[in-house]
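Quick one: sequence plus thiamine diphosphate SMILES, need structure tokens.
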Amino acid sequence: MKDSGILFIFAYLQGLREDHILPKAATSRKPEKRANLTSAKGTKKTAKPDSNTFLDVEEAIREYEDRKAAQLKAIKLVDKETLREMLYQMVLGRHFEEKCAEVYRMGKIGGFCHLYIGQEAIAIGSMLAIDKDDMVITSYRDHVQAMVKGISPEGVMAELYGREGGCVRGKGGSMHMFSKEHQFFGGHGIVGGQIGVGTGMAYAAKYKNTGQVVLCFFGEAAVNQGIFHESLNMAELWGLPCIYICENNKYGMGTSQTRAMSARSIAKKAEAYEMANEFVDGMDVMAVRGATSRAVERARKEGKPTLLEVRAYRYMGHSMSDPGNYRTREEIQKYQERDPIILFKDSLKEAKVLTDSDFEEIERLATEATEKALKFADESPLPSEDELLAHILA
Ligand SMILES: Cc1ncc(C[n+]2csc(CCOP(=O)(O)OP(=O)(O)O)c2C)c(N)n1
Ligand SMILES: [Mg+2]
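Reply:
Sure thing.
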């Protein structure tokens, strides 16, 4: 265990970059004592911590053990193929977005690009608890959700490149992935805008009696907007099958939740509308899956909405152009210590569901899928003039 801890420190120090910290391959195990992390060479200490950023190793170990114990129980109730698919999707999301960061820096992706690295357990845990026909809508941080819902990695990467092979033929870009076929309704740039649209989608499902539920994702900063409160009020009053998933990653751009929100329990806000709610550990993919399954059952059987507050952390800047001066490296490392992919792998191994060769195979498949997507995007043509003007309403 000690050796892997030392390797982990090495991997971290190797991975430190001027502006961003990007964890490389998730290979570590349980957190070990590694006090020297906080004095990593090149560490900038420009930001004042908004919260307790002290790297408490004992606490990290305790949390790791607690989460793993909970995961081991939950894993027993799920079939091997589903668990394998969950891990594959998480690893694919991580690899895919690490490559996005790389090619963005090479100038292959233009415009905004918001990465999801660190938050994978939320999309995968929740979306593997719904049916193929169910609907999903989210914010601009949408690449991983789009892939989990069924849009191919090629379709997402080519969209990022602005190419005709993209899922919206190169006209949406990073923030506007969309597929009617896969019931994925965006990719929205207006903070909170999708909460109203998602509520409308749930209304349509109820009105047409389709039996579908809606997963509506948004960040914690969107909760301060009127649309959140109006939507929850309507959804509870009208009994809409909408599951509101607040991805609380602690920051809205450079503003921490502690500086922007007076009442910080987002889950509790649902009580103002007498709506069912749950606070969920977003570093634990099984916890997210469990909470979403309960909400889906409530939506289908009772026609009732739910608000889930899922707490996680984004490792990268708000977008690729964010230098990240508002938080410390120590704070980022504190969350990387609790990486959801490492934890899930460890649990699957301990439960003897997957072996080392299964993990290698998953890594290989995820790398191959990403490479294939990059090649496809590179070779896909730019949209023709005709295509550029098609489907544009202005
Ligand atoms: C209505 C509106 N106001 C402001 C912005 C600028 N803006 C873009 S992202 C963002 C922060 C949103 O944070 P959060 O909802 O927590 O989502 P996260 O980026 O953390 O996933 C802001 C203020 C916007 N796009 N739309
Ligand atoms: Mg946020």
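The chain has one domain: 2-31+57-316+327-373. The domain at 2-31+57-316+327-373 is CATH 3.40.50.970 (Rossmann fold).
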